[in-house]
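Q: What structure does this chain adopt?
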Amino acid sequence: MKTKQSVVNQRKSLYQDAERYHEFLKGDKRVTTPRVCGVCGRPLASLVLNKNEYVTTVPHVRFHLDKIFHVNICKDIMSCYRTLKRKGEL
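A:
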């Protein structure tokens, strides 16, 4: 079980530890792989089968922690809360 405070702390530590980050809005087509929120597990991008490319379905932030390791989270913390509550983890 997660608490709201633990969700806040996870997100806060990502913002503090990241070398840089990029924000993606809904409908952004710069995505080439499926993405999932690192805090709540919500899918952030989906595949459009007709065009065979990914498009973002949720506004999110991509953190570059080093040259290899990247983490994605929902841009809005309320989205994480809602997803975790639906899963029964909050």
